[in-house]
Design goal:
about 350 residues, 16 helices, globular
Length: about 350
Amino acid sequence: MATEDKNNASAADSSNGFSRWRVLIPILIGLCVIVWLFHREFNVNIWKTVHFDTRVILCIALAWIFMAGRDFGLTWRFRTLTDKDITWWQALRVNFMCEFTSAITPSAVGGSSLGMVFLHHEGINLGRATTLMLTTLFLDELFFTLACPLIMLFIPNDMLFGFNENSFETGLKVVFWIVYAVLVAWTALLFLGILVKPNGIKNALIFIFKFKLLRRWQPAVIALGDNMVAASHELRTRPIKWWLRVFAATVLTWSSRFLVVNALFLGFVPHADQLVVFGRQFVVWVVLMVSPTPGGSGISEWLFTEYYGDMLNNAGIALIIALFWRIITYYVYLIIGVFLAPSMLKAPNKNNSENSN
């Protein structure tokens, strides 16, 4: 009983952290950058050349459908991970709240890690919820690790990173490969820690973080090691079919997210190479993993217009597409999250929690 009260208090503390300024800051950052970009790049004559005909409207609708596919993929994954212990609606709420917290926290921090709180609210035992969120983290990193070689195989390097050897493209390439290298190392660590030698990885991490310069992070590392060991006990007994289902949901989730931009390019710039558009979305999301701003706000808009600018006749069109992209993939989740947060951050349903134990 005392443990349950402590968990409820923790959820209540999290609720207090979601004050209005946490929502307003990313919105203001994003809007300021958009205004700056409009002032720098936008020409009223460009807007006059954009005709919202049937094709453009249908492609914008298609972009929304792809984003719905992304939500379906994550909802399906939460249902599968919990062995259908939560309903489709509960899984969808967890999905929306994970996206909301990602939107109001720096990308480098990872707001979706609070998913354990949201799963606990829906009746999943907190220890099991932590295991499930560690699993989702591993699946996401595994997708990026495996997708990169495939993208490099089908898209030439100069087309993927840009046709001009300027400082922006060179810097983008350097950042991408550094982040990807860290991603591969992190994925390998999770794989070994969750599925192969959890106790060995835990002991190795604790030993490394005993050194004076790293000692301040030792408590967090010990907690990570404990979670890996707990996750390993459950996940190593899972059949191959289960892993294929959750990974298929992961592929659907990320592919649908990338295809949002493909749909927008199909509407506004139908002559663009769709494979390159898709591949560049992969690069964008890898780079945004180290964004210091909430949800990548500001940096996303600037990166999009700079990166895709060489595929368009002018930067103004890139800015219009970037605006629709951010509305569909970012701002809508801020709005949904504002309405869901008050109820999702209350004390969890005790009856459901007891049933899941």
